[in-house]
Amino acid sequence: PQKKQVLVKYSGVNSTNYYLRQMSFQRSDFSLEILNTSRQDGQLYEYSVSTGPVEEVHQIQLKVYEPVSHPNIQILSKEVANGSCTITLNCTAEQGDDVSYSWDSQANGTSGLCSGNSSFLHLSYPLRSTSISCVCTATNPVSSWAVTFNPSECSSE
């Protein structure tokens, strides 16, 4: 026999919430809110609707994500040659589930210079250029943070 945990039972105008401190059921729109969500709440849920002798069963997969923490940019390598500076950067967030990274430019005219869709950015620019400003954005389905890198003539920033 298959056992299921019943959260809320609704019949006609009456409802019974078996987890009063953990769940909030709204009769007006049949929504169910899990209060103080934790990772253990991420699972497969089922709800059924009975009309006479017919019962429809629906399944919903709930995913719980840890928000992204503020990312940090680390210089992995730096080289000055032929009047250019070449830097490899790595942008990482210490916390967060399913984090994706993107790079973009904050300054006009340097849009292609700072573009990328991974945590790494390989940046090469003329030493005389001082208006370069690259932004790394760390994103997941529930949050997003951005941090800016301002190279200053290939200094040790």
TrEMBL record:
Residue stretches making up the Ig-like domain: 71-148
Localization per Swiss-Prot or TrEMBL: Membrane
Residues spanning the signal sequence: none
Entry superkingdom: Eukaryota
Main subcellular location: membrane
Keywords, alphabetical: Glycoprotein, Membrane, Signal
A GO term from the CC aspect: membrane
Protein name per Swiss-Prot or TrEMBL: SLAF1 protein
Organism: Furnarius figulus
